[in-house]
TrEMBL record:
Lineage: Bacteria, Bacillati, Actinomycetota, Actinomycetes, Micrococcales
Name of the molecule in the record: DUF1963 domain-containing protein
InterPro entries: DUF1963 (IPR015315)
Pfam families: DUF1963
Organism: Promicromonospora alba
Gene3D superfamilies: YwqG-like
Length: 846
């Protein structure tokens, strides 16, 4: 066993501000938990003297105490901490963290390399992909330790640590792999579920870090190319600190596979002058994948002379790379049309003057923004971000555009328009994803004056979005805005007609935009006058359109024609077009995710109609929430009966008026009239609660009675508190909806649908804001708990035997915090009005 003096001697002079004795003591403090595993001495010996690397193999077996070294801020049982203190008196977690900072502040690079290897082994990890994975662990721990405290040593650590030091450490350990610079940048940018890079970013964002990136831009491009999207996005943003040094890298990121990365790269390129941007983007016009070109084309269209570069690419049809492919040529020609025709035109329709905000404080804020040039500093950018968050208060968004233009920004038009797909509302939804006609009223004058931007959004897609966010259907968004125009913009009429004659969901708003435009009816007639062997889908669309316009003799096709014959169940085909809209969008997105069209269509065959709460509170009144409880005198309140004289009554939740439910609104055999009263005990005790409903036929005398319930209501202070909350709720209004399976599937359905996981994921992203209530349809999945309808079946032999496929969801309520209630029933019982056999289930994640 080495003595303290021998450890000190092994350190040599060291570097930095710390002395050798202090460093040796600090290393002992950091590694003290290894005394529990009796490998403390060889680990300290390896770190201080570089001998005994065999200890790394012992650490990878994760003996007791190693986790406290690898993850010092993680949870550890108190008895383990006590064991460390017994073996190393006076040891504390806080003291060990302070000792870490002492090491990181002053240790020489060879010692730091060996400490990194020990920390990495204590995670149970070996070499990964030939890279210095221990260097990643070390850099991550330095960032964690130095950003988790305001201690003076932490500031000194942050000042010392930069990419140059990390590279020195890599070289000290004879870095394998492509180069020490590659290992350094990989370590500082690496991200996984345990190592987020934010704590390491200060090493790249310092002046030394910026200079390092500029010297190693080729290596940075290699590292970024194999990284996750958020790393590429960060690199694109960081290159803005020295854009000239990173032109080639940012040019590649400008046509990245991820839309967010493309947007960030173009923002970085905007720091260069116009001619430089044009030269940088020109090379992509003939080589970049067409689906990644629109952003670059939009930027070129905004630059003086950019359209000339696009026209040159169109004219250069006999270049060495061969002629332009049709998709690329179409995109380029459309970009030229936007600049030469749409941008140069006067306002598409008469627009009112800019409406100033009535709120005096907001008006003053806009005036102050005129003196804050975006991009000139953190305070200026923060002020603009605050202003963006107040969009909903502006009667006319052009007021914000005018302020940005007055501040000297040359991106005012596009920046303001893109707020629709980049900003979220108070509910975390993108503004453009849920744009209402009332909201569109504040946006239409901007697009009437900038028709080229409207035309860009008609291309479709999901806008500039983070992959974890909901998509924005930009075509739907801009059609909603175009509907607010006082007249149809003539330059867009041909394109709108092409949408109106299509088979997807966009045909309906496009027709509303066109209204009674003279070209509209003529276009539909022309399609029907063509030979009958033409495109059947277009003919059906034309017939549907003419029937809508009241054309004499026009016969609309069968409902649901746009999905193809036999795709949708009969109960779904007759749903309103506004409801089928969601299935059309689902089909489009599922195909974009690579699911074969045939598999998507077979999945659509599982669709079921439902009634759901409308996000805007529309629809007829279908029910009343909470008391009073009205039941026939001879019908007992549903309850669990323990003894003849002891009944635990269920609580009234909602009274449904079946006469208000349209006959085909669900595929359930509901009575045509009367009332269904639904009960539940909102608690976590019972998994299945039998008999949670009463059917009251129309004309049956009822009496008001007290609902005597005794239980602890989950999420509420008491059952009375829950009832008060229900009574304060508005009347239950429901509108037509549609549902697809979202719960885990049975084996038979899974085998028949090999892409079920992807299809369910795509459907979960459809943000129709359906609200809390649903009648009929498929059950909403809650934390993968399973299908409540199938779970209700009693498959034991006997009187109550039933098959899982015979059970259906009568109603579901997402009305308790982190929980959901289901009322399920056997379809045969529903047909014979045996509502006393309804089963209530509640799932929650408290």
């Amino acid at each position: 066993m080495y003595t303290f003096d021998e450890e000190v001697a092994g350190l040599g002079d060291g570097t930095g501000t710390g002395g050798a004795p202090e460093l040796a003591a600090a290393v002992r403090e950091v590694l003290a938990p290894l005394k529990v595993a009796q490998i403390f001495d060889p680990a300290v010996d390896h770190v201080l003297r570089g001998t005994g690397p065999g200890v790394l193999g012992l650490l990878r077996e994760l003996p007791r105490g190693t986790k406290m070294v690898a993850e010092p801020d993680g949870y550890q049982p108190a008895e383990l901490t006590d064991a460390v203190v017994d073996l190393h008196p006076g040891w504390t977690r806080r003291g060990a963290e302070a000792a870490r900072l002492t090491v990181y502040k002053g240790a020489p690079v060879d010692l730091l390399a060996r400490l990194g290897q020990v920390l990495h082994a204590a995670w149970g990890r070996g070499a990964e992909d030939g890279e210095l994975s221990w260097l990643r662990t070390l850099a991550h721990d330095v960032g964690r330790a130095s950003t988790a405290t305001d201690a003076a040593d932490a500031a000194d650590v942050r000042l010392r640590w930069n990419p140059d030091l990390v590279e020195e450490i890599a070289r000290a350990a004879d870095a394998p792999g492509r180069s020490a610079a590659h290992a350094t940048l990989s370590a500082l940018l690496y991200v996984d579920h345990q190592h987020w890079a934010r704590s390491r970013h200060h090493m790249l964002e310092s002046d030394a870090g910026i200079a390092y990136l500029a010297r190693h831009t080729d290596t940075l491009a290699e590292v970024a190319a194999g990284s996750e999207f958020h790393v590429r996005n960060y690199v694109a943003a960081q290159c803005a600190r020295s854009p000239e040094a990173h032109v080639s890298l940012v040019a590649e990121l400008a046509v990245d596979a991820d839309a967010g990365v493309r947007a960030q790269a173009l923002a970085t390129l905007s720091r260069l002058d116009g001619p430089r941007q044009i030269d940088t983007l020109r090379e992509h016009l003939r080589t970049a994948p067409p689906d990644r070109l629109p952003d670059a084309l939009a930027r070129l269209g905004d630059l003086d002379g950019g359209v000339v570069a696009i026209e040159e690419a169109l004219a250069d049809g006999d270049s060495d790379t061969g002629p332009l492919d049709p998709d690329r040529e179409r995109l380029l020609r459309r970009a030229v049309f936007r600049v030469r025709v749409l941008r140069s035109a006067e306002a598409a329709v008469p627009v009112p003057p800019v409406a100033a905000p009535q709120d005096a404080a907001l008006a003053e804020e806009l005036r102050a923004l005129r003196g804050l040039r975006p991009g000139s500093g953190k305070d200026e950018d923060r002020a603009w971000q605050v202003a963006e968050s107040k969009l909903a208060l502006l009667p006319d968004v052009r007021a914000l555009l005018d302020a940005r233009r007055a501040a000297g920004a040359d991106d005012a038009d596009r920046w303001t328009a893109e707020l629709l797909v980049t900003r979220v509302d108070g509910w975390g939804r993108k503004i453009g994803a849920t744009l209402t006609p009332e909201g569109a009223e504040r946006w239409w004058p901007l697009f009437a004056e900038r028709l080229h931007l409207a035309d860009e959004y008609l291309d479709g897609g999901d806008g500039k979005r983070h992959p974890d966010h909901y998509a924005v259907d930009t075509r739907t968004m801009i059609l909603t805005i175009l509907e607010r125009f006082p007249a149809t913009p003539e330059a867009l009429v041909p394109r709108l007609i092409s949408f109106a004659l299509g088979a997807d969901r966009h045909r309906l708003p496009a027709r509303r935009v066109l209204g009674d435009h003279p070209a509209a009816r003529a276009a539909a007639r022309a399609v029907l006058s063509e030979p009958s062997d033409g495109d059947a889908s277009t003919r059906s669309s034309a017939a549907e359109w003419l029937a809508e316009l009241g054309e004499p003799g026009a016969v609309a096709p069968e409902p649901g024609w746009e999905f193809g014959e036999g795709v949708l169940p009969a109960s779904v085909r007759n749903l309103p077009a506004s409801t089928l809209w969601w299935l059309d969008r689902f089909r489009e997105q599922a195909r974009e995710r690579g699911v074969p069209a045939g598999d998507v269509d077979r999945w659509l065959g599982l669709a079921r109609p439902a009634l759901r709460t409308a996000p805007d509170g529309g629809g007829p009144v279908v029910g009343r929430l909470g008391s009073p409880l009205l039941l026939p005198p001879d019908v007992p309140t549903p309850a669990t009966v323990f003894e003849p004289d002891y009944r635990n009554e269920y609580q009234l939740i909602v009274t449904l008026d079946l006469a208000a439910v349209p006959p085909d609104a669900t595929d359930l055999p509901l009575p045509p009239d009367g009332h269904v009263v639904l009960f539940a005990n909102v608690e976590l005790e019972d998994e299945l609660l039998p008999g949670g409903a009463v059917y009251v036929p129309v004309g049956t005398p009822v009496e008001e009675r007290e609902n005597s319930v005794e239980y602890e209501a989950y999420g509420y202070d008491s059952p009375e508190d829950l009832d008060e909350s229900l009574r304060r709720s508005p009347d239950l209004r429901l509108v037509p909806g549609v549902s697809l399976p979202s719960c885990p599937l049975d084996d038979e359905t899974s085998a028949a649908h090999p892409h079920a996981d992807t299809l369910q994921e795509v459907w979960s992203e459809q943000s129709d804001e359906g609200g809390e209530w649903q009648l009929g349809g498929h059950a909403y999945d809650f934390d993968g708990m399973g299908d409540p309808a199938r779970e209700s079946a009693d498959q034991e032999p006997g009187e109550n035997f039933s098959r899982p496929e015979d059970w259906v969801v009568l109603a579901q309520w997402v009305g308790v915090p982190m929980g959901i209630l289901y009322w399920t029933i056997n379809r045969r019982d529903l047909e014979v009005r045996r509502f006393d056999r309804v089963v209530v289930q509640m799932y929650a994640n408290p």
